[in-house]
């Protein structure tokens, strides 16, 4: 819907979302809403990564929700997203390391799939049987999947949502026969269920569940494949041979870094996203059942799920990228709020050395992205320095002694976490939000 029309519509308090994009976040295309500042989004998310990766008509590597227009949000503002709940609905999934299949894509297998048989770009597909040759071109019946597993597994989840276990060949093939049923793929999702491949290299492995969102953010200001809305995956767009090619300057200008794969973006956390288009365009998806820092395998357990978000607009924040306020238990030891005992000790030291006033500080995490972890770290440091109008060396010192640099996704997503002085937060317009998270 036209953004001018959306801006004039009566905003709603709660919006149910169960429709998905074709893999491309396009500010010129339909948004849902509007919802009120302070409103709620209830979304049924489709699995990310592997399912869309073997579905060539999806042009972005993921299948995220249609963006939502937030009343009053304008470019230069920020949107505070409180993650109220994240619930897995899938009973099973498959995942593992990927290997692109040469001759089946144009430059980027996540985006521009080309049938090796008839040459059709973004071909429709059908499923024939199970295994890694089951995804066929609907036009010529060629094996068209652009990715296969190098080492993969099929996982089934317990009813309590506490653990999953990896399955044998026989069990994986049983699940593959009813892929959409076991994955609980939403009805409006078009992706092929990845359990169709029935991978079974790991058998009997137990993994703890702690679901989070790999994709949560706002719409970039130029058409961008959803999985490439970040500085690392986005670098593949620079000089690419397909229609979504970008320059480095365009990537820096338009991206919003909604694809983070940071495991701390879970229920109870708060994410503050930049606004680069009218209404912000909040979208989400790529829920994972569990993941350690780094997502070092390239992929983890993609699942369908139900998410509840609460959103608020912060006028004129001008944050260049996402700012994360994790749950207290997810903070680095050095960045946790101080206990009363620690404050008393600090006051005694201050008195001994005639320090008139100690800083009042609170935790904050700046997301940085780039082609490498070093680039992502520099990006995050600069974003923090710019928002607080201080130098990068100061942020480096604060992150070293009152925080940490943590990997969200290898090769190029990090969080720069540190204790920020309250007067920095107040000047930026974030003090009340951060205090509410850590009170």
UniProtKB/TrEMBL annotation:
The organism's place on the tree of life at top rank: Bacteria
InterPro entries according to UniProt: FmdA_AmdA (IPR004304)
Gene3D superfamilies, alphabetized: Acetamidase/Formamidase-like domains
Pfam families with a match to the protein in the record: FmdA_AmdA (PF03069)
Family annotation (SUPFAM superfamilies): Acetamidase/Formamidase-like
Record-given protein name: Acetamidase
Organism of this sequence: Planococcus kocurii
């Amino acid at each position: 819907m036209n953004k001018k029309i959306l801006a004039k519509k009566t905003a709603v308090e709660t919006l149910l979302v169960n429709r998905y994009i074709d893999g491309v976040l396009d500010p010129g295309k339909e948004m849902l809403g509007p919802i009120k500042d302070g409103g709620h989004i209830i979304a049924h998310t489709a699995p990310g990564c592997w399912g869309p990766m073997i579905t060539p008509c999806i042009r972005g590597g993921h299948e995220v929700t249609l963006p939502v227009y937030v009343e009053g949000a304008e470019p230069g503002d920020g949107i505070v997203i409180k993650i109220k709940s994240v619930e897995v609905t899938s009973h099973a999934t498959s995942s593992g390391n990927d290997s692109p299949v040469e001759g089946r894509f144009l430059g980027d297998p996540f985006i521009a799939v080309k049938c090796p048989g008839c040459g059709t770009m973004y071909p429709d597909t059908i499923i024939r049987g199970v295994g890694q040759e089951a995804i066929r071109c609907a036009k010529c019946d060629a094996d068209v999947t652009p990715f296969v597993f190098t080492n993969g597994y099929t996982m089934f989840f317990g009813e309590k949502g506490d653990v999953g276990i990896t399955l044998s060949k026989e069990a994986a093939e049983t699940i593959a026969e009813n892929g959409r049923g076991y994955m609980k793929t939403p009805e409006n999702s078009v992706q092929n269920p990845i359990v169709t491949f029935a991978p079974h290299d790991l058998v009997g492995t137990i993994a703890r569940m702690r679901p989070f969102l790999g994709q949560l953010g706002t719409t970039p200001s130029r058409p961008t494949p959803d999985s490439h809305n970040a500085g690392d995956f986005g670098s593949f767009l620079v000089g690419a041979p397909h229609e979504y090619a970008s320059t480095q300057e365009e990537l820096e200008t338009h991206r919003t870094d909604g694809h983070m794969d940071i495991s701390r973006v879970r229920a109870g956390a708060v994410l503050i996203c930049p606004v680069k288009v009218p209404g912000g365009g909040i979208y989400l998806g790529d829920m994972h059942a569990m993941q350690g820092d780094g997502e070092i395998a390239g992929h983890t357990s993609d699942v369908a799920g139900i998410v509840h978000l609460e959103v608020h607009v912060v006028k004129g924040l001008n944050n260049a990228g996402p700012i994360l306020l994790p749950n207290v238990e997810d903070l680095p030891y050095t960045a946790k709020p101080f206990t009363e005992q620690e404050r008393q000790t600090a006051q005694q030291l201050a008195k001994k050395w005639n320090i008139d006033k100690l800083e009042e500080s609170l935790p904050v995490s700046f997301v940085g992205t780039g082609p490498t972890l070093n680039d992502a770290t520099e990006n995050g440091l600069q974003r923090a320095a710019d928002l607080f109008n201080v130098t990068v060396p100061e942020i480096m010192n604060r992150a070293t002694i009152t925080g940490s640099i943590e990997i969200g996704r290898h090769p190029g997503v990090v969080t720069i976490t540190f204790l920020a002085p309250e007067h920095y937060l107040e000047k930026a317009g974030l003090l009340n939000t951060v205090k509410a998270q850590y009170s």
